[in-house]
Every structure is written in structure tokens, then in C-alpha cells.
Amino acid sequence: MFGKCKALSSFSVDDIDAARTFYEETLGIPTTDEAVGFKLHLSGTEIFIYPEGSGHQPASYYVLSILVDNIDKAVAELNQKHIKIESFEGLPQDKSGIVRGKARGMGPDLALFRDPAGNLLTVAEM
Fold it and tell me: Is the pLDDT assigned to residue 88 strictly greater than 90?
């Protein structure tokens, strides 16, 4: 029924200006203003980010996975920008915080981090 439709994903933040600065200036993702919030533009994919204010609850699951060619390089760049790689009990993370899923036949290699609103994000090497 919807197989040929386009889709737009979205998630909320508590401070729209801090979020825009983080995504645009820190991560280098182009953005455009919307009537409420802004859109991220990632190689033809758009993600809508909207303000939730004091009612915002950070997502406990990852709301955005950014696909990269080299996970080690991506994590090094995040570290240079003082972005903390999250550690989770039970995940097989190496000393850099990278989950080495490919070597275990368990999905991509990925690292988890948070935006200023506390939403969980990943960089992932497929």
C-alpha cells in the first residue's frame, strides 16, 4: 500500500537551538529551517527535529544511525569533538567503545553517543 511512498522520520529535543548547533556545526550535517524545528539532510534522507520543551523525554533507543565508511575514524572524530561514546553493560564494546558486530556475525560495527537532548545516536559501519 505505501511501498512507493516517501517517508520522513522525526524526533524531539528540549532545546532546538542547541540541537541545531550540535547537528550542523559539531556533526557537520546540513540543516534547513521548518515552520517548527528543522530538517537534517543526509544524502537524500531527511530527518525532522522538533522542539518538545520541558516535556521532552530522551529516546532510550537510537533514533538516528549515521552510516560511515570507517568506524574507527568516525569515533576518533567524535572524540576530537569531545563527544562521549556511551558504554552499555552487556554490549561487546572494545576499549574505544565500538561494538564490533561484523567480526561476530552480529550486525554492523557501531558506536553509540548522545545529542544535547540526550537522544541516543549511532555511527555505524556496515
Answer: no
